[in-house]
Amino acid sequence: MKKGPKTAKKGTNYTKAEVRVPFLHKVRAKIVQKWQSWRQKRAATRHVSQNPSPHRTLRKTSRHAIKADKFDKPAKYFSIIKQTFRLIFGHKRLFFGIVLILMLASIVATGFIGDERYNTITEIFDRENIAGLGKFGTALGTLVTTLTQGGLNPSPTVEQRLMTIFCGTLAFMATIYAMRQLLAKNKITLKDTLYNCFQPLVPCLLVLIITLIQLIPLLIIYITYSAAIQTDFLANPFYALLFGGFALLLGLLSYHLALPSIIALVAVTAPGMYPLKAIANAADLIRGKRFNFILYILVGALIIALLWVATFLPVVLFDQWLKGIWEFWQGVPFAPLVWQFLTFSVIVMFSAYVYLYYRRLIDEFRPRPY
Hints:
370 residues
């Protein structure tokens, strides 16, 4: 006997048409419907994206999306330096207060170090009398030795390194917070800065850890190069060529990964910003401007370093002159204190410089299509 079509059971709300469709066919139809809906939304937003990021899919990137910006004129590099000094010296009490407080915190956390090494270096150069330059030769030799041999404490402990990095991070965050408030035309005091600037401490440290991880290829280059030197591996030209290619590839990898993270250290201090989101936004900001970014960083670092040298050299000369006049000045750690003050001043100035460049990137940013 031939069976007829199934009918709905009594007490159910299903129609006869729904009963004829198996359960798996319903699931398949639902999945196809969702997939088509997602593809339509994707097609509507793919051509004009609000957060364009080429080279993140297997699709071919259009030429317009990867067209690099032209190099900036030299005047633009120095304009940020001028603006940095104008803001810092226009609010000396605020920024020098940040430097003094964090310098004292660093001394309390790590201990005051470097006085004995400084006295030893100055005595050696004073006895040698380099090129007959007298006190100037002593000051110049002391400066060059401390810069090339790791400062006044060339072999710090692990705890001292960590506390120094932590205090430097706090100085960076305090500077960024103060710069953000000043550019927003808000009234800001040293107390407000120190109370409020440490809120994004955890995201900032996470971005810093990610940046250090992205620099691991450079560490691999250093380790392999040291091993190759000790084993004469590079004596063979062919092996030297292979190592050069290996080092070049790893260096480019760190270059591609770590540059956005430097800008992300500034972006992550914004309220409500997460570390990975900050890194993704920073990568979009400097897309096509990586060489410009490196030039900005190098120009700023060079100018600030020259100012640091031009300030510390007269300090050493003045310290040597006072030690020749007063005996009690032999035990006064004047130059090491100025060294630490200038170190934190450099951190503050460079942080303000990077923040102003970050603001310029935001002002010039225009979303580009894929």
